[in-house]
Amino acid sequence: MTETIQPHAVAEQGGTLFDTVLVANRGEIAVRVIRTLRTLGIRSVAVFSDADADARHVHEADTAVRIGPAPAAESYLSAERIVEAARRTGARAVHPGYGFLAENASFARACADAGLVFIGPSAGAIALMGDKIRAKDTVRAAGVPVVPGSTGSALSDAELIAAARTIGTPVLLKPSAGGGGKGMRLVRDEEALPEEIAAARREALASFGDDTLLVERWIDRPRHIEIQVLADAHGNVVHLGERECSLQRRHQKLIEEAPSVLLDPALRAAMGEAAVRAARSCGYLGTGTVEFIVPGADPARFSFMEMNTRLQVEHPVTELVATVDGRRGLDLVEWQLRVAAGEPLPFAQQDVTLTGHAVEARICAETVSVKEGARGFLPSGGTVLALREPQGDGVRTDSGLSCGTEVGSRYDPMLSKVIAYGPDRATALRRLRAALAGTVTLGVPTNAGFLRRLLAHPAVVAGALDTGLVERETDALVPREVPVEVYEAAAAVRLAQLVPPPRADGWRDPFDAPTGWRLGGEPVTPAFPLRVPGHEPVTHRPRGTASVTADRVSVTLDGVRHTFDRAEDWLGRDGDAWQVGDHDPVAAALTGGAHPGADSLTAPMPGTVTVVKVAVGDEVTAGQSLLVVEAMKMEHVVSAPHAGTVTELDVRPGVTVAMDQVLAVVEPAEAPAVEGEARP
Fold first, then answer.
1. Global pTM?
2. 166 Cβ neighbours under 8 A, 6+ residues apart
3. How large is the C-alpha radius of gyration of the chain?
4. What's the Cα-to-Cα distance from 537 to each of 497, 527, 529, 654, rounded to whole Å?
5. Given CA atoms 420, 426, 429, 435 in this order, what sign does their dihedral have?
6. What's 370's DSSP letter?
7. Do 455 and 429 meet the contact criterion of CB atoms below 8 Å apart?
8. Which residues lie closer than 8 Å to 203 by C-beta, 6 or more apart?
9. Dihedrals φ, ψ of 554, to 5°?
10. Alpha-helix runs per DSSP H in 47-122
């Protein structure tokens, strides 16, 4: 039987920890770091932009400092303002979390220059491993296998195209300076290379301030497996096993687990040794992750992709399964702090084993676009009206949310993480599915229901994973219609609102009943015109029984009881949520409907227009990309619905747009007359 190490269990081993640490981040990772600081008795300092003045991490820290307006470039990405906040609050060290400045070598140097300890590797190691081209050359020299691809830095578009042709499509375009899937483009057609390179450069520049790209061979149906490493300042480097991160969409991880079902002990040891060599090759310090691409049919042919020089989003699954000297559970944030304070690791590689299984799901603010039958995920936003996040019984939620949180489009869409542990993989999956079903985030559309269905997919249950599985199976995992019981519950709420409260003595006037009354006729329950965004409006007449309270609705249809969480016009169940609004057919007819005609191009999400490729009067072809809208570090291309002429263009680069705002109008080209057809 294993014993869980509590964070305070190693707090008295000696060494000088920091009195005050500034957390240079926001959201769930800031809350996560603050939790460990509190456990260790270390004073925490939060920083916040104007958009986050009332955020959860601000309230949970011991003190908080405003560092600027909402745009990240003027707040969370300002090294000068963060260093000044540390100076003002007496912080001795800075924890960067992940994202923002976590892998910014200049920020690490700025901290050192200010006499602050950067809780992470050296600026030199960050710069080396942050440049994917130099990183590949360095680890290759250390004997680590790498993915075949382009060589050299600062390649021009022409050189990238030439390299792609030499490698042979399909190829993967990748920003040299960043990670997290930002700016990555899979290209299967050589003809698409120029446009895809331009798009990758734009996104890389926006995300990392550097548009340098490299090109690598694409491995069909690969698995993404990474190794967690931990290194101290005394020359000790160990690995804590692997995480499988193959369930992705658009190169963004959705589900992570530890350990991987693909690896046997020999392959785990080989990959772990390769990761340790990679860490040693750059003089690494602290926690880091070495990522490998692994052919599912021949996993022994694994190749180095990149090294993330920071704490990973998915670190909790390693914390839950890592076992040292028979004691399960490590707090990786604590070990970041201890290593940064100069403490040596008190264990060696032979002391590390893995116990049980852990799986993590990333909850993101996003909605499914169902316009014209298409299936695509887009960033969303809103105000959190109701929140329930599972904890305990093998389940952990890391979150930056609270009721009233405003989720906008300026920052990353990830809101929280739900993690489940079990003695085996089947138990962990079952617990995570149940936890996602019990997750409630009303007011902001999320992917919780989609992830619950993904975790029940037969291939996922069997462990037959690859990085393309989610894209292939999306249609099967996204319901095409709104369940009828959702409309039933929404109508029941409206019906209940029509009933006035009883008098003080309990008497109700029979004429107050919300049903129609006719002499000698049956009462008629009113019908309600309703609409769920992305779906056609319906008119629904309640036909079952219902129980309605301020935060719950239960309806019984055909003998089956359905229970929903409720907040304003939102209903939630099993991780899914629907905003069911009232539909006014008269107003819709006068305004052209909630969605303009087929000739109009509307914003698929609230965001910023970054590229406009056409002008009024331009002739365009069906499917031609006309504009690019960016939100939450993601680009969405708006394409022509048909061939025709651009007759209206209402935006320019840099303009902020709302969901469904009309951006442009393309009038269709006249169909060519058929010979012999009568002409007007």
1. 0.83
2. none
3. 27
4. 21, 13, 7, 33
5. negative
6. -
7. yes
8. 175, 182, 183, 630, 635
9. -125, 130
10. 56-60, 79-89, 105-113
